[in-house]
Every structure is written in structure tokens, then in C-alpha cells.
């Protein structure tokens, strides 16, 4: 049977010591909240320390990033149970043949907050790809990559446009034989096109 060992009351902290330690812990937690958590999570920086540490950049919401600070064009929240679209829902499918060491791009014009689900498969080999988007006023080589991978035979998922622009994929055949990429997209977007 296990013997229960009771601590010696002399070794335990007094009520005053516990109160002081709790006060110190609450003060440190409050200081961390004001100087790091609020700037990093919410972009609120009452002391200015978060800005100097570069934490306020982390606190900018995804909505503000996606709309460049334009509150009128806010994308729907990920927690929204229902959202509406002025654009009609539709589905498209495209097939692209890629010769060895060649690539091709497929895009759709989307407004901030519009969504689609996608599925693509490769027949005959593997591809490297870059799922990306470019703003309407972007220069020739200005784009944002969302998902980059190599040696893949398929990709599936959903996408929410973080800004007004053209969004889609670039696939490159990394093998020695021709391959075919078949893409299916359903949601709220303009027609699929090859730039």
C-alpha cells in the first residue's frame, strides 16, 4: 500500500507569498498581452513596442491584406455559414496536353471573396505546378503564389480569391513523355482561359 506523504506546513508558501506570486504572474501576463499578443494577433499596439518588434504586421487581418485596406471589398469570413454571390454558380472542365519539359497556364478572372473548388489529374506522368494569382494592374512578372509543388499527379481543394484578379495554375511536365492535365472547377468565377 502506498503511504501518503503530507508536506510540512513550514515548507509551504504563506498566503501572502502566494498572493505576491499571483500578482507577479498576472502582471507579466498583462505585459505580454499588451506588448506582444495584441499587436501580433489583432494589430492593436498601445505601447508602440509591437511596431518596433515587427509584430503589428502579423496582426493585420487576412481581410485587410486581401483588400489592401478597402473595407468595402471585404471577403467573407471563413466562419460565415452563408455567403452570397452576384455571380452565377457554374462548372467547367479543361484538358491540356503538355509535351516533355513544357508548361501551360490556366486561369479564371475572380473578384475578391469569390470561391471555387477544383480537382485536377495528370495522365501519363508527373508535373510541377504553381497555383497563383495576379492583380488586375500587376506587371508582367508580378504574381502571388498560393501553392507550389513538384512531381505531382493530382491536386484537389478549394480557393477563395484574396484580391480582384486572375487566379489559376501553371503546370510543367517534368518527364520525358507527353502528359495530359484534366482540370475541373466549380464555383463563382469567370470562364477558364489560357493566357
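Sequence proposed for the structure above (195 residues):
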Amino acid at each position: 500500500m502506498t503511504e501518503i506523504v503530507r508536506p510540512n506546513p513550514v515548507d509551504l508558501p504563506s498566503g501572502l507569498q502566494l498572493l505576491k506570486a499571483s500578482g507577479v504572474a498576472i502582471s507579466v501576463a498583462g505585459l505580454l498581452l499588451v506588448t506582444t499578443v495584441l499587436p501580433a494577433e489583432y494589430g492593436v499596439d498601445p505601447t508602440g513596442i509591437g511596431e518596433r518588434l515587427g509584430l503589428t504586421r502579423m496582426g493585420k487581418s487576412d481581410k485587410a491584406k486581401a483588400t489592401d485596406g478597402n473595407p468595402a471589398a471585404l471577403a467573407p469570413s471563413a466562419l460565415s455559414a452563408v455567403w452570397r454571390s452576384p455571380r452565377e454558380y457554374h462548372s467547367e472542365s479543361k484538358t491540356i496536353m503538355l509535351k516533355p519539359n513544357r508548361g501551360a497556364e490556366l486561369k479564371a478572372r475572380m473578384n475578391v471573396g469569390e470561391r471555387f473548388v477544383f480537382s485536377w489529374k495528370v495522365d501519363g506522368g508527373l508535373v510541377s505546378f504553381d497555383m497563383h494569382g495576379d492583380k488586375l494592374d500587376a506587371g508582367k512578372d508580378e504574381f502571388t503564389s498560393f501553392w507550389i509543388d513538384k512531381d505531382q499527379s493530382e491536386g484537389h481543394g478549394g480557393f477563395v480569391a484574396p484580391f480582384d484578379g486572375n487566379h489559376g495554375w501553371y503546370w510543367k511536365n517534368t518527364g520525358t513523355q507527353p502528359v495530359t492535365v484534366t482540370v475541373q472547377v466549380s464555383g463563382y468565377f469567370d470562364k477558364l482561359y489560357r493566357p
